[in-house]
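Minutes, project huddle
Topic: does the predicted pose make sense with iron/sulfur cluster bound?
PN asked that the exact inputs be recorded in the minutes so nobody has to dig through chat later. Recorded below.
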Amino acid sequence: MSGVAIDKKVKAERGQAQSARGAAVADRKARAKKAAILQYGRIAVQILFFLFAPELFSQAFGAIKEIFTSMGNAAVIQASAFVTKLVILCFATILCGRIFCGWACAFGAVGDWIFQIVQFVLKKLKIKPFRISLKLVPYLQKIKYIILILLLLLCFRQQNAMITKYSPWTPFSLWTAGNFKTAGLEAAIILFLLIVVGMGIHERFFCQFLCPMGAVFSLLPELPFFALKRKKEECIPNCQACRMQCPVKIRLDESPFADGECIRCGRCTAGCPKKNIGLRHK
Ligand code: SF4
Ligand code: SF4
Ligand code: SF4
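Predicted holo structure (tokens), as shared on screen:
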């Protein structure tokens, strides 16, 4: 091959490589934009629920406490307003997955905001953030079931006052309702502050590891219509992008998408370089 022909070939290859790089950059930007729109939309919805219905999660768990207290008393379970809200939230979870946790729960939203603020500050200060080992996460996620069982036993034994006294939700619910009472709630406030620290260190710390309401939601079955699906065989080899973006670190290569931990935040869908996660796949 002549020198001129070789030059042409090299130029053509360079041109192809450049346009491939350009396409990859454009694709990355488009994905980042889609992810940002989704996350801003989620924050907007979270703010609305925080302002207008911050008590939903504690009322839903209040209904569970009511049910177990009635059972412990051998009394009839009343269809109270709390029980109605619980039924609606459970129905929504069965239909669409834990969309309430990802988009509407005030406590989960506060956890998201604290985490984002702490990570932003650490980045500005050039401090490496602490990470809980990914291997440990699935084990820690089981703690919430133990907490749920203990709380149900306490309700069954008519110990609701004790739960209220120690529950970190008590000060949060009072404060979001504009009541800044602290007397008698010292233990609950300390627990709440410890949880705030955890929320800053690990994304969805409380939701994943400690929340009894999250434990209930994660145990509910999910109808398949709104379950996220992925074509595993079309994945990029060794790609972990979806797991690394997942706030609850679901191993998509191991778990089915009906994983009870999924809070339907949509980050994996928006961030997949192959647009390989969605509702449509079989
Ligand atoms: S896991 Fe609990 S605190 Fe977290 S979003 Fe769900 S209900 Fe709210
Ligand atoms: S990000 Fe997409 S391509 Fe990568 S593992 Fe997840 S689904 Fe597969
Ligand atoms: S699997 Fe996807 S939608 Fe579910 S929590 Fe993880 S990133 Fe969010």
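Observations noted during the meeting:
- Residues 57, 101, 105, 107-108, 206-207, 211, 213-214 surround iron/sulfur cluster (ligand 1) (CB under 6 Å).
- Residues 18 and 24 are 10 Å apart (CA to CA).
No decisions taken; revisit at the next huddle.
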